[in-house]
Write a structure and sequence with these properties.
This protein has three helices and eight strands. The protein has 144 residues and is α+β, with helices and mostly antiparallel strands. The strands form three sheets. A four-stranded antiparallel sheet has the order 2-3-8-7. Bound molecules: zinc ion (2 copies). The site of one zinc ion has 8 residues, from loops.
């Protein structure tokens, strides 16, 4: 039987783990083509950007929608569905931590399935993919 002391100890450990987890302690894995997901806050078009190019070649807080060309920050272009997915994965990790004391590090979230067509911008060379025929490069806004 679990005593109150045991339960309090468990609760304290849980609080500690939760506290250590607090700062964005998860990884988003790119899809099979090395792409990460983005979504336009204006027209809701889903698109993808090569994760390497995203890290090394782009101004991440100056992203263009490849469909309607609206521009915004990385936060603006974070897909709603991905936010929901992250919430669910983290909730599950919290429950596992409580029930089985599974550590709350090493949480990874899978990107959506890869899109068939990959485009390369003729101006800035970043690789991207969209669910529609692109009107602009998500990095430099150039019309291809
Ligand atoms: Zn748009
Ligand atoms: Zn470009």
């Amino acid at each position: 039987m679990t005593s109150i002391t045991d339960l309090l100890q468990k609760l304290n450990k849980f609080k500690q783990d939760l506290h250590e987890f607090s700062n964005d302690n998860y990884t988003i894995l790119p899809d099979s083509k090395g792409m990460i997901d983005r979504q336009c806050p204006h027209c809701t078009t889903l698109f993808k950007i090569n994760s390497e190019d995203y890290e090394t070649k782009m101004q991440q807080d100056d992203i263009f929608c490849p469909n309607c060309k609206v521009s915004g920050t990385a936060d603006d272009f974070f897909p709603e569905e991905l936010k929901e997915k992250i919430k669910k994965v983290i909730q599950a990790a919290i429950i596992d931590n409580w029930n089985q004391e599974t550590p709350m590090n090493d949480i990874s979230i899978q990107s959506n399935a890869a899109l068939e067509m990959v485009y390369v911008c003729t101006n800035c060379n970043i690789r991207y993919a969209t669910t529609v025929s692109p009107n602009a490069c998500p990095s430099c806004g150039t019309t291809n």
